[in-house]
Amino acid sequence: DAELLKSAALVYVVVGDQGSALSSVDQALKKGVRRDWFLLPRFGPLADDLDFLTLIKKAPEAF
Question: Is the pTM of this model over 0.85?
Answer without folding.
Answer: yes
